[in-house]
Amino acid sequence: MIPFLKLVAQDIQQRFGNDLSDIAIVFNNKRPITYLKKHLADTYAQAIWSPQFFTIQEFLGLSSNKEQVSPLTQFFYLFDLHNDLLATEGLPPEPLEEFYPIAEIILSDFGQLDYDLVDIDHIYMELYDTSRIDIEFQHLTIEQQEFIRQFWQSFHMAGHTGVQQRFLKLWKRLPILYKKLKAKLEDQHQTNYPTIYRNLVEGTMDNPDFVASYKKVLFVGFNALNKAEATLFQRWQEEERALFYFDADTYYLNDQQQEAGLFIRRNILQTELINALGNPQDIIGQRKDTVHLYASTGKVSQTKLLHQVLNEQEKEGKSIAILLADETLLVPLLQSLPELKVNITTGFPLTQSPIFGVLNLWMDVHEAISHFKRTKLPYQYLETFLNNPMTRVSATEKKANQDFINEKQLFEISLQDIAINSSILSDFFKPLSDNKQVVPILIAILDNILTSLAQDTQIKQIDANLLIETKKVLNQLQLGFSKIPKLSILFQIGLIRKAIVTINSAIEGDPLDGIQIMGLLESRCLNFDQVYILGANEGILPKVSSGVTFLPNNLRRAYNLPILENQDALTAYLFYRHFQYSSDIHIFYNGIVDESSTGEESRFIRQLEFESQMHFAKHQQQQPIQFPPVATELIIPKTGAIWDKMYRTFIEGGRRISATALTTYLASPLQFFLKHVAEIKEPPSISQEFEMNRLGTVIHEVMEKILQPYKGIEDFTPTATLKDKIPSVELLVQQEITSLYHIESQSIDDFNSLQHIMHKIASEYVKMYIQYDIDNYQSFRIVELENDQDYTMDFPIQIDNRTETVTLYGIIDRVDQVVTDLGEVKTRIVDYKTGADAVKFSTMEKVLTSNTENKALVQTLFYTYVFEQVTGHRDLEPHLYVARKMREEGTLFYGSYGALMEGEFLANQKEQFVDFLRTTLEEIFNTEIPFKHNPDTPIYPSDPYTLFYRNAVSADEEVTD
Asked: Closest by alpha carbon to 864, among 919, 921, 815, 807?
C-alpha cells in the first residue's frame, strides 16, 4: 500500500504545483515532518520552494506575541492567588506542600476547559436544585442536563458532609481563581497554549491575521479534535484557508460500532471537515495477511523474544518500527536489541541514568539528615555513593571506606566518620546549613558532573542532554522557591522529585534509516513495512484509567469533555491504522498472570481476530527448562605442589590443627583444603542478619571478665558469690559490643537495632550461665580460662608407612572444679554455645562417622584430650552450656539411651575418640584420598565457598563402569 504521507505529497503536487513557499503544513507532532519532506522530494524529483512546517501548537502560537509560561511558573502564580482568596474568606493560607497536588489538578482542568471552550462560571456553579439546572442550562440537551442532575443529586440529599462542603467551597472559588490566573499572565505579558486556543476562537488574539500569511494551511493526520480546534478548523475551511488530510479506513470509519473511527466520523460528519484525499479505501477489511501474536513469559521477556524474532526477519530494504504500547519497556528493549541502528524519540528517561541515581541519593541522604534529624545513615547510602560511576571516587578511597564498614560491621555510619576526599562531590554528605541550599547544591552537583565528564572524555550526548534539561527544571524551581520565605527541605525534595522524574533525552539516530522506536502516539501519520508492537496487554492497550481531575465523569459528559471512552477510541485508532499499510506485523504481550498483568492480549486484537479476515498466528513462548551443563565436580588430588605445601605447612612447619579445622574436614574435605591449604579467605562483608559468631564473642569475653578474678585462687569459692555479678552483666555486655563494633557508646541508646538485639540476648545468656552454676553447685574454683595459646601437643600419625607428627591446638574456654550438692568434686571443661547445638547424641560411633552428628561433642572431646595430654589432668568431664536447652537438659553430654558422659562410660568414649582422631588425621594426609566435598553436608546460603562444591555428587549418584 502507498503510505499515507506519500498520498499527501502526491496530492500537494497535483493541487499546488512547484511553488509551495506560501503553504503551511501543520502536524500534531514533529516526527512526521521529516517523512513528508522525503516523500515530497521523491514525488517532485526536482528542486522546489519548500512549504513551511509547524506543529499545531507552534502554528497557533503565531497568533500571540506573549511569552510561553512553564507549568512550574503557573503553579507558583496559582499558589499565591489561591492564598489571597483564602485570606479574603478569612481562612488560613494553604501550605505549599499541601497545595501542590491540588494545583496540578486545577491547572490540568483549567487547560481542558479552555481547549473545549467551556463556560467557566457555568461548570463551577454551585447548584442545589433541579429548577436552577433547567434555567441555567437550557442550551444543553436533555441528556446533558440529566448528567448534571445526577452529579448534584448526591450533594442535595440530606445536607452536605464536611468533605462535600470543602468541595463546594473549592468549586465556588475556582472560577475566581481561573480569572485571576488569566489576569496575572496578562499582566506579566505571558500566556499558555490553552489560553491561545480560547483567544483564537473568541477573537482576542494579538495577531488576528496570522493565517492570512499563507495561501493555504494544510492540517495533516489530525484525529481527536478539541472543541477549539474543531471550531477553528471549521471556520478556516469555510473561509477556504485550510485543507484537511485524514488518515482513515472505511473498515472502522463507516462502522458506527468501531471506536477507532469515532473522532474522524465526528470531524467529517459533525464538524463537516472535508478530507482532501477523498473517500478512504477499505484496506483492513480486504486484508487476509498473517499477523504474528506472541505471548511471552513475563513483561521484560517480550524484549528478549523480540530480539529473537528480529534476528530471524529479513530487514534489507525494509522500514522497521518498534512501537511501545507500554513505554516502561524502553530500557529493557535497549538492553535486549541486537547490534542494529536505532532512532529513539520516546526519549531515554533520566530515572534510568546514573545521574538520577546521584540526585536521588543526595535527596535521600538529606531527607534523613534534615527532616528526620539523623546523625547516622544506613551503610547502603555510602555504598551506593561509592559505586556510582558519576561520583568518581578513587579506587583506594573506595576500598578504604568499604574496609572501614566491614571491619566495624557498621549497619549505620556516623556522619562524622564519612570522609570522601577524592570524589568530585566531596561535600555530598555535609548537612545543610540553610533550607535555601537544596536547589543550589543540586545544581552544583550537576555542574560538577558535567565538568568531570567533559574533562574525562567526550561527553555522551544523552548525558549532556539529561544534565541540561535537569538544570533547566531546577532553575525554574529555584526561581519559584525564592519568592516563598519558608519551605521545608522535605517539601522541596518532594517537589524536585516530581519535577525531574519526567525528564528524558532523545537518543537520536537517522529517522529515515534503521529501526525506529517510539510510542503509539508518536506513530501518527507514519507507516512502516515491518511493525513490532510491545506491551499489547489488556489494561495497557488501552489504559484502564484516565488522569486525575476535579471534574466528575457526569459533568464531563454533560460538557462533552474527554472521558475514558475517548481515550480508548484514540488508542484504538492509533493501533488499527498500522493494519492499513504494514505488510508484516508482530504483536507481543505478557502472557503471565501476576499482580500487574491479566495475561490477556488487548481486546483490540481479539476484535480484529473476530471481525476481520486476517489470520493471527499465535506463538507461545516456552520457559526453557534449564538443564545445567554436565559440570565436573571439583576434586583436588594431594599431589605435586599441593602435597608439597601440605607437608611443608603441617609436618615440617608445624602449623597447628584446631578442633574447628577438624570439624571443617569432617563436613567438607574440599572446604578444609580451601581454607587451610589454599588459604582462600572468606571475603569481608557486612550483613544485616543477626550474626551468632559475634554474639558468641561477646558472651565469651563477658564470662571471662566475670570469672577472671577467681582464677588462681586455690580455695573453693561459694557459687552464691556470683549473684553479686549479675547486676553488672548488662554494662559489661554493652562495653563488649562497643569494643567489638568500634563505636562510641555512652548507653545502649546509641546502638542500632541489631546491636540492641545482641545486647538483650547476650545479657540473658550470661545471666543464665551464672544462675545455672549457682543453682547446681555449692562452690567452684577456676583452673583455666580463655586460653588460646598454651595448649598445643604433638600427635603421631602414619603417612606413607612412616611416622610423622602433626600439632594439635586446643582453645580452652574454661576448666574448673566444682563441688556438687552431694559433696562430689568434679573437674570440668566447659564450652559456651549460642546456636542450636545439643548435649544429646545417638551413639559415639555415629558421632565419629557422620559429618553432621553433634559437631559440638567432637570439638569438646578434642579440647578435653589436648588439655589432659598437656597438663596431665585426667577425668575431665566435657560440659556444653547451650543457653536454649541447659535448664531442661543440663550440660553433660548423654546418649540416646540415657547414659551420661561421666565415669567409666566417659573413659571409653575418650578412647574411641583418640582412635577416630588418628584415623581422620591420617586420612587428611593420605595421598590416595583427594579433597572433595561431602554432598550430604547441608549448604547454607551464607556459605561463601558454595561455588566450589555446587557440583558435588553423593556416592550413590556416581556412575560406575
From this structure: 815
Q: Residue 595 is placed in which grid cell?
A: 499482580
Q: How far is 77 from 81, CA to CA, in rounded Å?
A: 6
CB-count burial class (<10 Å; 0-12, 13-18, 19+) for 421: exposed
What's the fold here for domain 4-62+210-270? Rossmann fold (3.40.50)
Cell of 474: 531546577
| Distance, CA of 430 to CA of 442 (rounded, Å) | 13
**Is the pLDDT reported for residue 595 higher than 90?**
no
Do the beta carbons of residue 499 and residue 72 sit within 8 Å?
A: yes
Contact (CB, 8 A) for 427 and 421: no
Counting residues of the chain whose pLDDT is more than 90, the rounded percentage is 52
DSSP-based three-state secondary structure for 530: strand
| Strand pairing class (216-220; 717-718) | unpaired
Q: Are 801 and 738 in contact (CB under 8 A)?
A: no
Write out the CATH class of domain 686-782.
mainly alpha
Q: Could you read off the pLDDT of 454-472 as tens digits, one per residue? A: 776 556 777 888 899 999 9
What does the alpha-carbon distance between residue 381 and residue 387 come to, in Å, rounded to a whole number? 10
This prediction's pTM: 0.67
- φ, ψ for residue 882 (rounded to 5)? -100, 105
Could you tell me the three cell numbers for 204? 482576542
811 grid coordinates: 582453645
284-341+510-620 shares the fold of 4-62+210-270: yes
Tens digit of each residue's pLDDT (9 = 90 or more) over 666-691: 888 998 999 999 888 776 655 544 46
Q: What mean pLDDT comes out for the span 91-109?
A: 87
Q: Please report which helix (H) or strand (E) contains residue 81, including its range.
A: helix 71-88
Which three-class secondary structure state does DSSP give residue 749? helix
Superfamily of 284-341+510-620 according to CATH: P-loop containing nucleotide triphosphate hydrolases (3.40.50.300)
